[in-house]
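Support request, please re-run this one:
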Amino acid sequence: LAARIIKFRDKLGGFISVEQVRETYGLPDSVYLKIRDHLFYRQPHMLLNINGLNEEALGKHPYIRYQTAKAIVRYRAQHGSFKSLSDLQKIEGIEAAIWEKIVPYLTLK
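Re-run finished. Output below.
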């Protein structure tokens, strides 16, 4: 289970909250509840440049997925570079819940 947690952390680019450990594939909630008081996270975490990465690179992030990455790249091609991360909310298919999860992992540089 520890290896799964580390693998998930590495795919994310780092945890931004202890609560994210709960999303680890195959981690029973009972185990999470036992270990959560012993967990901590450090910043910084890895940031993805939405103005420079292609859909393949963006789609590797667990919260973005390929379809969302494709929509981001297509929107950027049509409208130019993103001026702010809130511009992502203009993209059809990126719901508020997804936006809230991915925005801490994104940068414009």
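The radius of gyration is 15 Å. The first strand starts at residue 48 and ends at 49.
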